[in-house]
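## retry 2 of 3
previous attempt timed out at serialization; input unchanged, resubmitting
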Amino acid sequence: MKTMQRFFIAFLCFVMTVSVVEAQITHSFTLKISDAAGTNDSLILGEDGRATDGFDASLGEYELPPVPPAGAFDVRWIVSGVEGLKLDYRDTLSFSSKRNYWSASFQPSSAGYPVTVSWDPTQLWNGFFYIYDGETNGAKFYFDMSGRSSVTISDQTIKSFKVVHIFTVSKTVSTVSGWNLLSIPVEVKQWDFSSLFPTASSFAYTYNGGYVQKDTLQRQIGYWVKFSSPTQVSFTGEPFQQDTFSVNAGWNLIGSIVDSVDVSAIQQMPAGILNSYFFSYQNSYKVANSLLPGNGHWVKANATGKIILKSAALHKRASMAAQVSNFEQWNTLSVSDVNGKEAAIYFKSTLADVSQCELPPKPPTSIMDVRFSTGKFAEAFTSDNIEKKIEIQGMSFPITLAWNIKDEGEYTLSADTKKLCTLSNSGEVQLNETTKDFGIKLLNGITSNVPVHFSLTQNFPNPFNPSTTISYAVPSRSRVTLYIINTLGQRVATLVEGEKEVGYYQVEWSPNVASGIYFYRIEATSLDDPNKRFVDVKKLLLLK
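## retry succeeded, writing output
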């Protein structure tokens, strides 16, 4: 009696265990393999959160005997450490495990080939499933399992096949009416333009020294695409939280990955290969602190190389917000039109490094763009009585030009070589007729004037690599010390130490220190009035 009770309890525990296992199995489906005589057997593959890539006896997997002699029919999953399995579970897919692979070997009976592998495509779950030959990893056949129910193998050199399940996500991108700078943030199945952007009202254009129309698109590339009205575009495919992009010397129109990317975390190979900001486009070019999935982005390189993009979830790095705030103290000219499009450019009458302020190539002619004729979005006047020309395209009249002057320079705004107005403080002017020639002229700058206050400006560029420029002003003969400290307060470099006459100064720092956050501090004491002292500290970011 006790023996029967023990047997019943053991049996009940077994049933309960099997039930729990079955309840926790996420998905599975069956492959039927048959040869020329119709001899057949089945293999089961599945995914479960408790599974490994090896032998999981707790999930009901069991080891097979060795493969029988030739002429005896046999099929099995190939799993390390065992002779083979009839069913094989793998861990449930996630971002950290984007793909699961199953490898199977088969041996037909004496009837031989062809060997047919069949399945029910309605049993497949979310994601992409592909089956391909194991001998050449897909060179002989490679099929999407959702689009068919079998594959017939006649090539007698093929004795194995593989199945891959690719985890997929869906990303939706919002577009505006008109031109958009877009990219495909995941690895999709169909890359033809009409499948990806069925509601577009234009072709897709990328950049390769000039704009080129593309009918077949690629991941990692940015494209100009036009829509007649705002819409939502969805992409479903394999996600990448980290990827390596190739860049060429000059301007590159690139895409992004499945998540936003903080530009401060982008690795450059070799270091210092990039020599511009990153730019996105929202009715005009904008300096981008983050690369957004589904958007296209511009960046300029000084040589051929690579950049590595990582999801913000994979790193903790300082923000690049400082690169936009660099221009908060500059004079601003904003240009807007009757349709609400708006863009801004910056200028000042003190020395500044504007070498990295070059804008990407102009967009197609119907797309709004505002820039100086030098191609930059910021300009510094180096002397009085010179004019900086402004180029405007893709705007509908009337247009409004609004300014905010923050320095002591005196400026005029001209249109078609005629003076429109003097720029001082804040104001605006509206133009109702088409004007082709705009310009800002500095009448009386402050570069050559005596500064009236001590000052320390934000370094430029920031973040930087390999060098940056720091500007400061001395209103009277003074003893000046300017030095760099790390986050521990340790001095790592002294840039200025000694007496300085009245004037505006610049000093360049080309450090041989590790990447990271540093601070630069100025201490100045007037030699004419020792009570007149100045101390200021600002932060900078070195990226290598």
